[in-house]
Amino acid sequence: MGNSLFANCCRQVTDLLFQPRSSGSPDERSPLLPKSPTSCSVVPEMPEAAQCAGLYPDIIPSEAVTGSLQKGTEYVQDLSETKDKEGMMTVCDKSGSRPGVGTVGLLQRTEASSAATVLPADLGDRPAGLVDHAQSLEACQSCVKLEDSGLAHRSCRREEHVAAADSRAGPGAHSAGQAEGRAAEGRAAGRLHAAWVPPDSALECRAPAPSPRSPGTPSSALADSAGKALPAQRAVVQPVPPGEVSPKAQNTSAAFVTEPTACPSRSSSSDADSQAPVLPSKQQQQKKKRKKKKLPLPEHPSGVALMNGSGPHDSLKGDKDAKQNGHEEAEPGEDGNDQEVIVIQDTGFTVKICAPGIEPFSLQVSPQEMVQEIHQVLMDREDTCHRTCFSLQLDGNVLDNFAELKTIEGLQEGSLLKVVEEPYTVREARIHVRHIRDLLKSLDPSDAFNGVDCNSLSFLSVFTEGDLGDSGKRKKKGTEMEQIDCTPPEHILPGSKERPLCALQPQNRDWKPLQCLKVLTMSGWNPPPGNRKMHGDLMYLYVITVEDRHVSITASTRGFYLNQSTAYNFNPKPANPSFLSHSLVELLNQISPTFKKNFSALQKKRVQRHPFERIATPFQVYSWTAPQAEHAMDCVRAEDAYTSRLGYEEHIPGQTRDWNEELQTTRELPRKNLPERLLRERAIFKVHSDFTAAATRGAMAVIDGNVMAINPSEETKMQMFIWNNIFFSLGFDVRDHYKDFGGDVAAYVAPTNDLNGVRTYNAVDVEGLYTLGTVVVDYRGYRVTAQSIIPGILEREQEQSVIYGSIDFGKTVVSHPKYLELLEKTSRPLKIQKHKVLNDKNEEVELCSSVECKGIIGNDGRHYILDLLRTFPPDLNFLPVEGEEMPEECKKMGFPKQHRHKLCCLRQELVDAFVEHRYLLFMKLAALQLMQQKANKQESSAALENGASAENGAADSERPESEDGKMEDSVTGLDQVKELAETIASDDGTVDPKSREVIRNACKAVGSISDTSFDIRFNPDIFSPGVRFPESSREEVQDQKQLLKDAAAFLLSCQIPGLVKDCLDHTVLPMDGATLAEAMHQRGINMRYLGKVINFITKTPGHAQLDHIFKIGISELITRSAKHIFKTYLQGVELSGLSAAISHFLNCFLSSFPNPIAHLPADELVSKKRNKKRKNRNLGNADNTAWASMTPQELWKNICSEAKNYFDFSLECENADQAAEVYNLQKITLLREISLKTGVQILLKEYNFDNRHKPTFTEEDILNIFPVVKHVNPKASDAFHFFQSGQAKVQQGFLKEGCELINEALNLFNNVYGAMHVEICACLRLLARLNYIMGDYSEALSNQQKAVLMSERVLGIEHPNTIQEYMHLALYCFANSQLSTALNLLYRARYLMLLVFGEDHPEMALLDNNIGLVLHGVMEYDLSLRFLENALAISSKYHGSKSLKVALSHHLVARVYESKAEFRSALQHEKEGYTIYKNQLGEHHEKTKESSEYLKYLTQQAVALQRTMNEIYKNGSNANIMPLKFTAPSMASVLEQLNIINGILFIPLSQKDLENLKAEVQRRQQLQESMKSGEQLEAEDKAVEEKEAEPSMPSAAIPLTQSSA
User: How far is the C-alpha of 1225 from the C-alpha of 1220, rounded, in Å?
Assistant: First the structure.
């Protein structure tokens, strides 16, 4: 009974945690959508194949159309809730197309309301280019600093023209992009603050909907099937190939009008509107739509809202009428044939482009697209990429850059667009030079190594020899057996001890870029003098060609020409010949043959690269190693450095961005429906990533001493800085602010705590409550906090401006009703209790946060909260309080322990886990009490049940009462509890006092603050020094103290053991420090518990199976302790001694050389006089060379004491060699960990750590030191819900539906994040796996390739996640018969794994099994055995010699021995496997039977072989030899084994299963017709869900977890 009770509790918890949103609450979107809201009659739980087949047998929905579950539900609701705030939403509603629902959803709902409200027919007159929404969305894009602008988002049709598959803005996309962005004068999105303010102009900022996916299903697939769908009702089936953004996302552009894929045809209306004044295109479009509908402009009263929530049918009827009116009013240009079913045939139309100097070519475009995008394509195309300053003309009329193509009169299939060269301005000339420089640098990885412009590295193409997809060099199909060289490099073989570093960054062939010019730079003669300006000179360039010809070039309004100036004489007259050319490239082609040859070769290569290799990432990723790079002359880089780029990153030179205004206005954007939310989330994400980049640059400038302080007279530690509208402060305790909390140490952790607070409040996202943009940067040993500036804060004293909270840790405290109201809304999600404290005058003050949290109203009237460092309750394990007894569990583990500061807080994850744990307890207690009552009074409880379940009686009465009694009891018991809780909360008098008592007791027992419902909250001020509570709340404070103690004990008694158990089960597989930290954080365990976690591991029985965790833990402990020491060490180093100091530290830390000597900066550089003056400027100690005296012994002694003091762990080692030996660590791994943690970048070369005669590192080996940045990561909430629903579906076995939901999620993620993001990477990986399971190998390969590229770019080339992505990709390559590529990828993964961790890791067993199997497949038996036997050894160690994994391993080894005809060894291994199967699964299990069959076969073969041998011995050479069967493995059998070890099981479905499925589908169909009310539907659906628990999908390959293999 206990278990079932528990299971039910869990179910209840999930129900409660993810309650379906009721129609009243627009924003609680449930992540798992348990129920469909009443206003929508989609059957959410139905497998999509079934939905479609059932309702409309003829419609085969294309991929992304259908994932309609959540969309359907949520969307309709969104519509009903939107009482058109701006009055615009409705407009679109009437246009007939509520985009969001995926066609099927639409069709179903229309059916339900028995009126086809699908889509108006006026699509007829424009070829439907709708599928290409991705473009339309990107349209305005370059305005969003093009750096991450669209780049990858070209969709299918472009591929012919841009060989780079989906690429979009050129190579060095950023700068070109920036320039382009600057070119886009009218588009304000780059500076959102300008664009966001008036509601209308918000429309200008159109978010890109990048969709970096492969070409989608051709829409024509739908054509024939849809024709028959609903003859009487004009349905338009609008396919959305997976490559595109879904219809709903389609118009994130117009924030409020979800401009659907199919609005009444706007092209037809263009004549009607052509007289309208030309607005910026977005508003214009907006107006048009309004005009056409003849609706009043935005002021119309909300009464017009179509869906007033008046019940599902009425609203839909209303909808229908509106749409019909829509038809009557539409222009006559529309296709009026009402009965016809229109099927959208094709994407877009083709136009011819005629550019000077090349043959006209055709380009496919979509009506949604902007003219601007054609510009973009031309600037990226190989043959037109050198033009930047041109206009497009149709019949002599210049097209407006920001017009959508469908609004352009006369533009149709086959129109000829002329590229016309325009005169230059200074600005255009600069953009042109920048663009040319970017094209020249497009293959140069130096930006990625230097960590600038959001470039990062990717090496996948080195191992796949080009692109795996359809573009690029397609690999030869076929077995490729002959030409494979399978020998891995020596260092990859099992047992190899060397760990070379150079292989980490193999030299890419394309990186030795073809040299086109020696020098291209601005001339010293700039700017042109007045008289030359009047001749049209804009600027002068100086060029040295590869042939060594020095020339001066004039950029004039008409183009570029040679002038007669030299380095020392100014003579601006044109040279003879002057070669006047409109493009700089054309000019250089004429004067340098080498330039001509190399430039065109370079562009060919550029367009062949995968777009994901060149798009900018949203946040900068730094590489900890880099090769020695030559430093080349670069005019643009130099110019950027001089202008400090302040003017440049903005598109409005000379105007800095008002970060605070941008951050807050994006938060204020409307969010009532999906398109609005997408637009809002995209804007928030964009501003955050820009802000993070600017803050990081500023923080580095501050520490490097390049920014003037605002209080220059104070001592260095106290100085504050403002740069680029960002406020910077250093992590030191200024004016003894943190004296009681631990001084400088507290001041150092406060910023990260504050950042966590900001993150949390941002996630809760309460309207009207604002936080500051916050970024914490660690650089050169200093911690800098960068914050946006509250308007007006600098003009007044802090005391006057704080109207809520306390500025002196609780002595003076003030409160404010508005703040209480706003913070009250956050208190439930954040579990913060409203409480009273006493101020210095002993008055009670009410707060709903900790006292330090300050509220300030800015000059802009917004309510800001700051100093959120104590958002979460204190961690009592690290906060000893006199007279307080800690629980037993804590005392056993040596807590409470004095920490070095008093700001230790529990993590949010811990608070959530604790509350959930308490909730389960609450449910159990109440259920047990109710069951006792029930036993006592059967009748009354029955009466009670009827009374209580009034609200959800329908659901309850239908529960099947058939299960056995106990189960039944517990179920109803828990249900009663739930209902009781709800009823009591709603406070109607129907509940008898006994039941109230039950709930009250349970509440008391778990520490709930309410006695009628479960509600646990924490008071963050408990145990805060200096905070006093009034007498009245004494009891409450006692309860709170107890709650905190319980939480501290919960961390030790539940979370840490839980983590270790998960590691034992291999559900958590950290590979390095970062992944271990992440695993701890997910369970709410702070890093300061690391020592305790390691101790716990050593005490765990069977801890050999946790060796890998132990090893990672120890190396993390050592490197973190070393980082703490390194931080203070660096503060004493001045800039000139930086590389010497870092190399000295690393020598002391890792080298075996006993006494490394630091090289001080040479004396002739440090003149004595200057030194005295500069002492004051330096932030550190007075003695700038103290660092040089450090010795290895001293450092390791400090590391050990730091480990003891901070982590409470005793390290047993006195130097690096001992550490490596005792704990079996690799020095190269320690080097990687310390470099990543401190931001050090070292030279890529082989380091000899064990040489006792010379130090490992010299100062030349230290290349750079990067900042380590912590920032907020804004989330794409809708996309995430789709992703979760998709995952849930897949787990239930509905693969196709899951696939669609995940496709949908991918579109939305792209919409919010752009093309590159960790979450998109996860999405692509899952999608690839689904494609693979469903048998679409090439699609799997293409998606997984993107996942690998993205993981390399966003997480790092050797991040554990990247290693796993490589393994998946290898499997899909093998399935696609690309064997040598598969092996290369597996070898790469193994090398990375060795570098990051070493060989002894459970994941290595999986990797080696993969390698062994592939080698077996290509008949490299001896090599194969080395890997498989290593895997066997590792599996036996980590899974126990009796586990099924080990049995499988034995079987794989046996197969190879069989192929080698060594039957005795084969038999031995297979017997081992057989024994395990027999013991674990019993004799009758199919696995055991298979194994025994194979044993028989091996025995026969062995006997046959022996006979033959005897024959040979007996008869010598003329023996009569029977041919033996040696089985070379078939590819299919190898693939089957690969699937098994990678945890992919295909479950064949019998004919019977399929019959059942069909019957089920029909039953549902009838069910749906008979259903007239949404509520009944819900109830039935519950029953259905239970039946459906067994997977029932044709082709059902159910991805099982690895362990079940």
Answer: 4
Report which residue type is found at 295.
Answer: L
Q: Which among 1301, 1353, 1356, 1338 has a CA at the least distance from the CA of 1323? A: 1301
Please tell me whether the peptide bond between 1192 and the residue prior to it is cis, using omega within 30 degrees of 0. Answer: no
Burial track 950-982 (b if 16+ CB lie within 10 A, e otherwise): eebeebbeebeeeeeeebebbbbbbbbbbbbbb
Max distance between CA atoms of the chain, in angstroms, equals 115
Provide the percentage of residues in the chain whose pLDDT is more than 70. Answer: 66
In angstroms, rounded to a whole number, what is the distance separating the alpha carbons of residues 1319 and 1324? Answer: 9
CA distance 276 to 497: 76
Query: Within a 10 A sphere around the Cβ of 407, how many other Cβ atoms?
Result: 22
- State the Cα–Cα distance between residues 626 and 630, nearest whole angstrom: 12
Structure tokens at 798: 């802090």
| Whole-number Å distance between alpha carbons of 1357 and 622 | 10
Residue 708 burial (C-beta neighbours within 10 Å; 0-12, 13-18, 19+): exposed
State the CB neighbour count (10 A cutoff) for residue 1496. Answer: 9
Beta pairing, strands 726-730 & 720-723 = antiparallel
Report the C-alpha gap between 50 and 72 in whole angstroms: 16
Q: Please give the average per-residue pLDDT across 1382-1408, as a whole number.
A: 96
Helices (H), 788-893: 798-801, 817-830, 888-892
3-state DSSP assignment of residue 836: strand
Plot region of 716 (φ>0 → left; ψ -120 to 50 → alpha; else → beta): alpha
For residue 720, give Cα distances in angstroms to 714, 787, 1130, 1175. 9, 12, 20, 19
821: Cβ–Cβ under 8 A, 6 or more apart, which residues? none
How many Cα atoms occupy the beta-carbon half-sphere of 1023 within 13 Å?
A: 27
CA distance 714 to 988: 65
Whole-number Å distance between alpha carbons of 1366 and 1355: 13
Greater pLDDT, 22 or 864: 864
Length of the chain as a residue count: 1605
Edge to edge, the sheet with strand 550-556 lists: 517-522, 537-545, 550-556, 559-563
How far, in Å, are 178, 386, 417, 461, 903 from residue 383 at the CA level? 22, 8, 16, 24, 61
CA distance 35 to 411: 47
Cβ contact 132:344 at 8 Å:
no
> What DSSP character marks residue 139?
G
What pLDDT does 1160 receive? 75
In whole angstroms, give the CA distance from residue 87 to residue 296: 9
Structure tokens belonging to residue 195: 């664009």
Amino acid identity of residue 282, one-letter, is K
Q: How does pLDDT run across 564-598, given as a tens digit for each residue?
A: 999 899 999 999 888 999 999 999 999 999 999 99
Q: pLDDT per residue over 75-111, tens digit each? A: 434 444 443 343 333 333 333 333 333 433 333 433 3
The distance in angstroms from the start CA to the end CA of the chain is: 30
DSSP string, 1050-1066: HIIIIIHHHHHHHHHTT
* Closest of 579, 529, 521, 586 to residue 550, by C-alpha: 521
- Are 101 and 75 in contact, with CB atoms under 8 Å apart? yes
Distance CA 1274, CA 679 (A): 13
Short-list 1324, 1306, 1328, 1425, CA closest to 1375: 1328
Buried b (16+ CB within 10 A) or exposed e, 1422-1460: ebbbbbbbbbbbbbbbbbeeebbbbbbbbbbbbbbbbbb
Contact 674, 1281 (CB under 8 A): no
C-alpha–C-alpha distance, residues 1492 and 1463, integer Å: 15
Look up the pTM and report it: 0.75
Give CA–CA dist 1178/1131, Å, rounded. 9
| Segment 359-378 mean pLDDT | 88
Q: Which two tokens stand for residue 592?
A: 């340098």
